[in-house]
Amino acid sequence: MAARSNRFLRRALAVGCLLAVAALPTAAPAARPTALRAAPADAPQVTVLRMLQMNLCNSGRAGCYTGRALARATEVITAETPDLVTLNEICANDLAVLRRVFQTVHPGRTVVAAFQAAGDRPSGDDTRCRNGQRFGIGLLAHARAAAGPGTVYAGTHPTQDLADPEERAWLCVDADGALLACTTHLSATGYRVALTQCHHLLDVILPGISRDAGSLPTVLAGDLNLRAGHDPDVRTCTPTGHQRIDDGRLQHITATPDITICCRTVVPMREATDHPGLLATLTVGRSRRPA
To answer: Quick one: fold of 45-286?
Structure first.
């Protein structure tokens, strides 16, 4: 238990780790129907959400960098109006830009934005983009305006590829006590390492956080650098009963049994990055707990 706690208790709670949205724009688009459905007090709570995963390859250092990924991500968020956005291979300021876009498509909601940098083993600091900003993963979510600022959990994987100076990270957000939304970017240089990271994240870290938060339904989206039907197979680290979809390659969305995933869409990124967007609809159903 102590080893598990050391990993996922590296959490930055709401103070200083969430970017709460500032003033709303004057000319905001018309509000879309809320995802929350009213239900009788004794009925199960059901929430329908759209989730978008994108790997922007925006460090400026990788061969897949084009300089156009942020603009394309803005277009996709504006067009698709997702309720959750998970982001891999971004610079810290990219999240601030996309948070403002996300707010415009969710007027009247409280936006939660979280970022976790990848570690840099040689320096003991964070990995940096070419522009000097921290490099890592991010997540955008929204909550009811009256909801609190949410809670962020973040850390680095205990197993890393020692041949790669970048230490891969994971990140989760509990926006309003209804869902634990998570992202990660697993090792690209050692596929067996990626599989070990996947197992530990899905079997140890996320269940532990969920229990601490009140057994929340949990969804993970990210570039896992693993494929279905290949060796190693991503399905071997998907827990029994979990649903999983993918983009046909390396990006996946996996969810606990109290979440239904449907309506998978692969979103073209028009060669702005080397990964498509992965969009899906989540139906989150939880029985109301006794008082």
So the answer is: Deoxyribonuclease I; Chain A (3.60.10)
